[in-house]
Amino acid sequence: MLHLWSLGVEEQFYLVWPLCLVLLAYKKMDIGKFIVGMFLFSFLLNILFITKYPAQVFYMLPTRFWELLVGCGLAYVQSRGVAELGSRKNIISFIGLALLIIAGFEIRPGDHVPGWWALLPVFAGLFIIWAGPTAPFNRIILASRPMVFIGMISYPLYLWHWPLLSMAQIVNQDKLPASYRLAILGISFVLATLTWLIIEYPIRFRVGIRSSRRASYAIICCSLLCLTLVGSLGILSNMRILKPATAAVLGDLKNYDQDMWRGDRCFLGSAANDASDFKPLCYTSNSKKTIFLWGDSFGAHLYPGLLNFFGDDKSVSILQVTTASCAPIIGHTESRIPACEEINNFALQKIKRTHPQVVILAGNWSEYFDWDRINDDLERTTNKLIEMGVRHVLIVGQSPVWKSPLPETLERNYIKYKIPIPRESKINLKASIFFIDNMMKSKHQRHGVTLISPIDTFCKSEECVVMLGNDTKADLFSLDEGHFTFKAAAFFISDRIGPLINSIFQKD
After folding, report:
1. Which of 433, 361, 441, 356 is nearest to 395 (CA)?
2. Are 330 and 382 in contact (CB under 8 A)?
3. What gap in Å lies between CA 329 and CA 376, rounded to an integer?
4. What are the backbone angles phi and psi of residue 50, rounded to the nearest 5°?
5. Are 430 and 398 in contact (CB under 8 A)?
């Protein structure tokens, strides 16, 4: 129900704006100047923080206030009789239409919105409304019966379409085909029309309220039943039971073997765990050369590769403090892991005590909500480690991550149709991983700190490795949404991290 954020912002505005008008009237202040000042202030907040805090700017009222103020400004100037257009209304209407078309073609996924881009649709709406009902576009197109009907059911249509699309996406797990999206749009129109007829119209106009109650209850019950069925399908689809055809091609896959990660010793996977659950072998070193692995489960999946590379060298100790869904960042809190901050403080204490030459920070950075803040906090953490005397900090950047487990993705798109599995694929790959990877590269390359990107190793042209060789039963890249198989971890460490650590040891 994330789409309800816009209604939340709208209702907040309706609470704040009347109070502002009352205060302005009481203080006998100029409403026009106030509108201009608040517009500039809110728009400036949007521009200043859109890059660093995109989520907050997108969802919060202070940075969206200017968009709603545009309508208030138009109402104000019209009330004073200074916004009459006369014959210019046709030009204004078509300017608004042109801005709307430009916005539709130019604003793309990944652009910072609202930002500067929001000026296009906001002023498009302003000019179209300003032109009035007799302007050609408004009179011929917007006033036509189909458009009026869509406007009439727009509110329930807005409420229905997103949950249906989201549920379908969860069930299907891949990008929805155009035919599916069109079908869902049609269902949304039907449900929106029924909602308007049975619920909205009687309530707004007090027509046949009593007689419509039973119908209202019926549609609500049917809707809840549909959502329950779709949700159940989503749960079933996440049970991750491979079909026999898939198992025959990929082998008898089970969940990753956490024992290879030193599970319940150096990798904690339960929300009930705390720092006291780490065993002494995870943070005790008697060797001259010490590597300290600190991270979440995407740190833990590197351990088999490190052990494979350094296992025969008795002079090297591999220490490990890793916790599921807990980013290796000082002060990081995580509602899913109550002890996350405590565990990170514990890791910092052990690093201070053991004096490792190399600290590896690794995580599934795409899992954490505020990437800009995480990036800044990660820089603060590396600075602290350098201050503590750590010779070199290696940050493992964003790894390839899929929207659903890789074996299921391969089954659905290749094995099912008896198509050979390619070495690389972009199907069902999370697009955000490339953005996060580039953002991290721009910040974490300096003296004493090296960022190593798994995406540089395993991806090219927005495609990532799914098979490390020709043997489908032995060369799979990941057993789930992104955790490395042993072969992937061994390859990554031997190709990138191992040689670099050896060179650091030789310099010391």
Report:
1. 361
2. no
3. 10
4. -65, -35
5. no
Q: Tokens 């608004």 — which residue?
A: 96
Contacts of 32 by beta carbon, 8 Å cutoff, 6+ apart: 73, 76, 77
Half-sphere exposure of 365 (CA within 13 A, CB side): 30
- Find out whether 250 and 235 touch, Cβ atoms under 8 Å: no
User: Per the structure block, which two tokens stand in for 253?
Assistant: 């896959």
Rounded to whole angstroms, how far apart are CA atoms 416 and 410? 8
DSSP SS3 for 109: coil
In contact, 282 and 319? CB cutoff 8 Å:
yes
- Which element (helix H / strand E) includes 424? strand 424-425
Give the integer Cα–Cα distance in Å for 320 and 383.
20
In sequence order, the β-bridge partners of residue 391 are: none
pTM, to two decimals: 0.59
Question: Mind listing the pLDDT tens digit for each residue in 37-86?
Answer: 999 999 999 999 887 788 889 889 999 999 999 999 999 998 887 767 87
* DSSP at 294: E
* Helix or strand run (H / E) with residue 263: none
Q: What is the DSSP letter of 450?
A: E
Q: In Å, what is the CA distance from 457 to each residue of 294, 397, 410, 496, 497?
A: 21, 11, 21, 8, 11
- Burial (CB < 10 A; 0-12, 13-18, 19+), residue 364, is buried
Q: How many residues does the chain have?
A: 508
DSSP 279: -
Q: What is the pLDDT of residues 169-204, one digit of tens each?
A: 766 655 677 788 899 999 999 999 999 988 888 877
Q: At 350, is the secondary structure helix, strand, or coil? A: helix
- For residues 464 and 424, give the distance between their C-alpha atoms in angstroms, rounded to a whole number: 5
3-class SS at 5?
A: helix
Contact indicator for 152, 196 with CB cutoff of 8 Å = yes
Average pLDDT over residues 386-399: 95
Tokens of 333: 């809190």
For residues 323 and 326, give the distance between their C-alpha atoms in angstroms, rounded to a whole number.
Answer: 6
Rounded to the nearest 5°, which phi and psi values hold at 372?
A: -65, -45
Residue pair 97/124 in contact by the 8 Å Cβ criterion: yes
Q: Are 275 and 343 in contact (CB under 8 A)?
A: yes
Minimal CA–CA distance to 466: which of 397, 405, 419, 418? 405
Q: Closest by alpha carbon to 165, among 184, 193, 190?
A: 184
Whole-number CA gyration radius for the chain: 28
